[in-house]
Amino acid sequence: MMHKTNQLKRKLKTLFSVFFLLSSSSFVMGNEEFPTAEVCKTGLAVTDDTVTVGQLHSITGTMAISETGSVEAERLAIKQINDMGGVLGRKIEIIQEDGASDWPTFAEKSKKLIIQDKVACVFGCWTSASRKAVLPIFEKENNMLYYPTFYEGLEASKNVVYTGQEAVQQILWGLDWAYENLGARTFYLIGSDYIWPRTSNKIARNHIERFLKKKDSKCKVVGEEYYPLGHTNFRSLINKVKLKKPDLIYSIVVGGSNVAWYKQLKAAGITSNKYNLLTISTTEDELLGIGGENAEGFYACMKYFQSQKNPNNQAFVKAFKEMWGEDSVIGDVTQAAYLGPWIWKAAVEKAGSFDIDNVHAAHPNIELPDAPEGYVRVHETNQHLYSRAKIGKITKDGQFEVMAISDDLIEPDPFPKGYQ
Amino acid sequence: MGDYTFDEIYAIVVMQSFSGVSLMCIYILMGLGLYIIFGQMGVINMAHAEFLVLGSYTMCLFSKFVTENMPAFENYYVIFAIPLSFGVAFGVGYLVEWFLISRLYHRPLDTLLATWGLSLIMQQCFRSFIGAREMSADLPEWLLGSWAASDIIDIPISGLVLLLLTVFLIVGLALFKTKTRMGLRMQATTQNREMTGALGINTKMTDRITFGIACGISGIAGAFFTTMASTSPSAGTNYIVDSFLVLVVGGLGSLVGLFVSGGFLALLSSILEFFMTGSIAKVWLYLVIFVVLMKFTRGLFSDKVRS
Q1: Cα–Cα nearest to A269, from B7, B24, B152, B19
Q2: CATH class of the domain whose range is A168-307+392-405
Q3: A104 and chain B: CB distance < 8 Å anywhere?
Q4: pTM of the entire predicted model
Q5: How many contacts, defined by CB atoms under 8 Å, are there between A and B?
Q6: Does B12 touch chain A (CB under 8 A)?
Q7: Any idea where the domains of chain B sit in the sequence?
Q8: Which of A22, A136, B69, B301 has its CA 20 to 30 Å from the CA of residue A4?
Q9: Nearest 10 degrees: Cα torsion B130, B131, B135, B138
Q10: How far off is chain A from B287, nearest CA to CA, in Å?
Q11: pLDDT tens digits for A41-69?
């Protein structure tokens, strides 16, 4: 009896130790395949089982409204990547800093993330001003920023991956669409007064006056105006629009002004029954504040709408709502922010390394075939994305009905010839 | 303007005049609460704009509550939201005077700093407790549209309501100040605090109620602003400059001045914005104001202010 129990114990012991060896060896194997000394030679925060990345958005201040969606999307992507086993067998850990809607704070916090925390890359920034503030630091310290917002172009740093559209991608196809489908010949360009709307309208004006005019000589810009950020009185402008009767109101009004703009348009009788309006600055996020009924029937040109019907997007929307609540809405930039961690993961895995230069070298032609917006690919040279532009029509519940999708992937061209 | 018919120009003049009147009402509503606090109590309230926003939030949250719980009520809730906004802002103002302002009456510079701090605290409270995203009140359909007087002329309904509300508030305030016991106490306290106290009037309570009423009126204004702009934690920064502008141009602490300067600024910006483009019009507006203030250093109308 005694003898037998001992034998059993011994057997159990060996079983346990085999099991233990097996389980630990599989763990060791992950690191043997990608030993830390190999995948990270530049002293980034990479250990045998973790890699630390930075997240730098405004959690407080004016921009918190817009940037919250990006923070949430990046967190979702990182969580999903971790659930799949991480990057090169390492779990992603996040150090989050608050840029506080203040550009020098962005610069200071990016320094902290890169120099002190030695993060492997940073997902962050929203406004061009904040990106410009951190850019010299990323270039000097050689780190990588994944930037989600559609922006004015005129930049292509080797230390930034631009997951939103640059201006040309968002503007030209949209104007062509309005020319063909809305019969737009006269255009009234309106924007908030800073670099993005001004650069974008410059490109739009060039396109109208040089390219569309060749198709139909009636094409012209009948007005172009800018109002300070936060401006809430558009009544005079609206009266001017009524006097000029443009076929298309082309609007790049941002932030809180947006709400005032649409509410006053409606109050002055400018609705989609009588006028066409195309915007490149109003997403589902803004519509939450504006109220769908105030902008119903107007159009927006984006690369992503929450209502897109493909299965990848439906899974994304479901996962987003599970993590951040049933009420959340997902705008164009939020989806672009979601792409950041996935592109980084793909690049790191392609390079087999976390080091910035290797990741940079791996970026060209990285594809995300299953992105919520549809297939995207990183450009061969400028670290922007090829993507398809889409036209959405605003519905009463604050969503968009997708009206058209560009046939081709639109090439990102941050320094467009003939438009500057 | 040669390309336009007479009818079009006529219509635009009508609409532009109406938008000028709306703008004047907005200026007056913005300045009203600030005027009462400064005119009656000599306190410069840097947190003024946050009380406007408080009113806006009350309106938004109430509208959310109504649409979720009593949809049948949706078309009429605005009528109740306005007194509710007054109540909430009055309550907060009353407490702020009690715990903060009443301790600082003899230190005007410290009041400036304290109320500015208060504005930052209130902004962060909105952000933390209500949320950083923009909010909008679900307004009843009848308030959103326009009244098409002719083919081209559209008069915004919200503008008409705004006009009524402004007239109501100004007349109400004037009557309150001159006809009610509380109003007379307020005036007495402004003119001679010690004497008023000696006559057995509780001047501290009077201050508290004055401050509360001023905040409450800002709350009403804020509630109404939801019909044309958004509500976000930092929305106040859009209002504060204009609020001070209208008060300073009008002459600190004069109701007539507030009225005239609201009209003057509205007229000026309506004309400038119509003939120039947005940002440039704003530059010219400030230049003109600059010149006016050099000529009238104490504003267009200046009453005697308690020193």
Answers
A1: B152
A2: alpha beta
A3: no
A4: 0.83
A5: 129
A6: yes
A7: 11-295
A8: A22
A9: -50
A10: 16
A11: 999 999 999 999 999 999 877 777 778 89
